[in-house]
Specification:
Layout: E1 5-11, E2 14-20, H1 26-37, E3 45-48, E4 71-75, H2 79-105, H3 116-122, E5 128-129, H4 137-148, H5 151-160, E6 166-170, E7 180-183, E8 188-192, H6 204-216, H7 225-246, H8 264-275, H9 294-318, E9 320-323
Parallel strand pairs: 1-4, 5-6, 6-8, 7-9
Antiparallel strand pairs: 1-2, 3-4, 7-8
Length: 325
């Protein structure tokens, strides 16, 4: 005879204790959770030890890897809450479509004086709009505004004549696999600002990296060599701009025999090194051994940074979308 087991499921700050048998089905667990939380099984997302239990192909709780005393976190909305969210989202999308159509019918006219103020107004983000139906829209707007007015971002947009009609956000539940989306080569750029649980916002530096990636899609649609070169160039110029600004100058100087990087990526990595030791995501700066020469350390940092940048770009490409109509 199987011994009963206790599971503790947390949902929105409330803990639910369930007594089940190891041979009870996963479907029974989900039904019990629906009775307690009103969240249907199709909308339940269970996390065990920070990961999703292996429910695929598992018929019983024990086959899914759950044991007595397991603590599980459940995410998910009730059908009623989801209906309200989708209704608000549909209304928002309708308004966004109307505004977009108006913008297309009344294009921005730029004086031909060639003045810097005209150029500044042309190569910019012409509209900022958070998703009003998501939590803390004011905080989202503040983050979008900070991105739009970031001096380094504005610098590369001016230099490369990049303009964006709408800067807005991606809701995590809309396209969970995407961090960024460029619509019609700059008609709109959508960025993932929020965490998957809607309990906060992603790091500014990470969101800005995605924005830089999406700005490159204003010129190049595919993730080909042309795109990679431009994206690398934008990242390098942003780092150079911030370094020279911090030094109190807006130009770079050097000697004729200075080391010339062999690739755009290496140049970007070298700029990161000049700005400070590279930090790995969720990790620490590589440490130097006591007998390491300055040149060996430079080479090691360069190699480590290039590997990090390549990995980041591969992740961004996997979670980037471009759309045309």
């Amino acid at each position: 005879m199987s011994t009963s087991m206790e599971l503790v499921v947390s949902h929105r700050g409330t803990q639910h204790r369930l007594s089940l048998l190891p041979d009870d089905t996963v479907a029974l667990l989900q039904t019990r959770l629906e009775e307690l939380t009103s969240v249907p099984p199709s909308l339940q997302k269970l996390l065990f030890k920070g990961k999703k239990p292996s429910f695929e192909g598992a018929e019983t709780i024990s086959q899914a890897g759950l044991k007595n005393g397991a603590r599980i976190q459940m995410l998910g909305s009730t059908s009623e809450e989801l209906g309200r969210t989708l209704a608000a989202e549909t209304e928002h999308q309708r308004k966004e479509r109307i505004l977009r159509e108006r913008a297309l019918k009344a294009p921005i006219h730029v004086r031909s004086s060639g003045s810097s103020s005209t150029s500044s107004s042309q190569y910019a983000f012409h509209r900022i709009e958070p998703l009003a139906h998501l939590p803390e829209p004011a905080s989202a707007r503040a983050l979008l505004t900070r991105l739009a007015h970031d001096p380094a971002i504005r610098h590369v947009m001016q230099k490369h004549h990049l303009a964006v009609g709408l800067l807005t956000e991606l809701a995590p539940h809309e396209q969970p696999h995407l961090l960024g989306l460029n619509v019609n080569a700059g008609q709109a750029i959508k960025l993932r600002l929020r965490t998957d649980r809607y309990d906060g916002f992603r790091l500014y530096s990470e969101v800005r990296k995605v924005l830089c990636h999406e700005l490159s899609h204003n010129v190049w649609g595919d993730h080909d060599n042309n795109f990679k070169e431009m994206n690398s160039q934008l990242n390098r110029e942003i780092a150079e701009f911030e370094r020279t600004t911090a030094e109190g100058t807006h130009h770079l100087t050097g000697t004729g025999d200075a080391y010339q990087p062999s690739s755009e990526l290496e140049a970007e990595a070298q700029t990161y090194i000049l700005c400070g030791p590279p930090q790995t995501l969720g990790g620490t700066t590589p440490t130097a051994s006591g007998d390491e020469s300055r040149e060996d350390r430079r080479r090691r940092l360069l190699e480590a940074t290039m590997k990090r940048l390549q990995k980041e770009e591969e992740e961004l490409e996997e979670r980037c979308g471009t759309a045309t109509s």
